Amino acid sequence: MEIVDAQVHLNMVGLQAGLVAMDAAGIDALVIDEFWGFDEHGRPLPNYPLSGGSVRHTSPLGEEAVARHPDRFAYVTRVQPDDPGLEEVIATVRERPGRLALRILPFVPKPPSAGESPENLAAVAAFAEELTGGRYDRYFALAERHSVPVFLQVNGIGIPGRLDAIEHIARHHPQLTVVIDHLGVAMPGSRAARPGRFAQFEEVATLARFPNVALKWGHATRLSEEPYPYQDVRTALHRIVEAFGAERIMWASDWTIDLDWSSWAESFSYIRDDEMLSQDDRAAILGGTVRRLLGWPASPAP
Predict the structure, then answer these.
(1) What span, in angstroms and rounded, lies between the C-alpha atoms of 157 and 151?
(2) Cβ-proximal residues to 20 (8 Å cutoff; 6+ apart), any chain
(3) What is the per-residue pLDDT across 254-265, written as a single tens digit (0 to 9) for each?
(4) CA-based, 20 to 30 A from 70: which of 30, 121, 134, 247?
(5) How does pLDDT run across 56-78, given as a tens digit for each residue?
């Protein structure tokens, strides 16, 4: 079974170390999200300035990885909604080898360890208003027109997902593939007991009624209060598969962020070895879905 990871910040370890770790864990391919943090205006790095005050994101490691190992790497990019060349930039996203999708995430002023701080809650709420209040209307319309999938994070550490924003976008852009990042639920920042933590998936499951919405199954082992193979997380996954179907669920490790929660191999092997899921469902979640939704066919090693 091919194992494809839908999100890794590979720049945090470097290309060569990443390849060694991939081989050790049994990862066949992955999608790079090159992220170095935020600049002083809350815009993702790396970027360079444009006239008018906007910036444009760059992916030097993603480009290098695809050039050297096109069979193993693809990457996502970011675009600011106020980019003066927005139409051309989004129209040409997929023209560059291995650059397959867009990703949008909120800026929160406090470190993730601050969790559900008033500042972070307010920031995510303001971000949701931007997504639905007009600032991103042209952005999503262009992505829809040019068949560019969008990964969208509307939650955070201790911050419940603003799934109303996902619903708004899915309803107004029915041909746009929207992938809910990081489960769409409040992600724990500690191993303290979290009663009701899986109840959040009931709201996530309601979005399955939109055929253009998919779910990135990432950071799931953070929710577990059991040792490997995380049976409580498996049970939650079964419920989500019932709602979305495995063809709209893609596994992601976010390995460089979740090192303290599970090993890279553990983050997917509890799914691979789950006999309550069919072989086809496991193959879809662990690689088939991300390849199909991003239009990224497997290719032989050069």
Answers:
(1) 18
(2) none
(3) 999 988 889 999
(4) 247
(5) 999 999 999 999 999 999 999 99
* CA–CA gap between residue 90 and residue 105 (Å, rounded): 17
Every domain of the chain and the residues it spans: 4-294
Please state which of the ranges 80-89, 142-151, 187-196, 237-246 shows the lowest mean pLDDT: 187-196
For residue 235, report the phi and psi dihedrals to the nearest 5 degrees. Answer: -60, -40
Q: How many CA atoms lie within 13 A of 87 on its CB side?
A: 0
Helix intervals (H) in the chain: 15-25, 60-68, 86-91, 118-132, 137-145, 163-172, 201-206, 231-244, 266-272, 279-283, 289-294
- Is residue 42 within 8 A of residue 107, CB to CB? The reply is yes
Q: 4-294 adopts what CATH topology? A: TIM Barrel (3.20.20)
- To the nearest 10°, report the CA torsion of 41, 51, 127, 123: 10
Of the chain, the end-to-end C-alpha distance in Å amounts to 20
**In whole angstroms, what is the distance from residue 119 CA to residue 159 CA?**
11
Query: Predicted confidence band at 51 (pLDDT cuts at 50, 70, 90)?
Result: confident
Phi-psi region of 240 (alpha: psi -120 to 50; beta: other; left: phi over 0): alpha
